[in-house]
Amino acid sequence: MRFRIILILLLLSITELSMAYSFREEFHNNELNKENVERMLSQYSSKNGITDKAYLGICQAVMAQYVFLPTSKLKSFYDGKDLLDSSIEKNKDNGEIRYLRLLIQLNAPSFLFYNKNINEDLEVFIKDVYNQNIDPYWSNIFISNLLKGKKLSAQQIEELIQLKNTLICQNP
Question: What is the number of structural domains in the chain?
Answer without folding.
Answer: 2
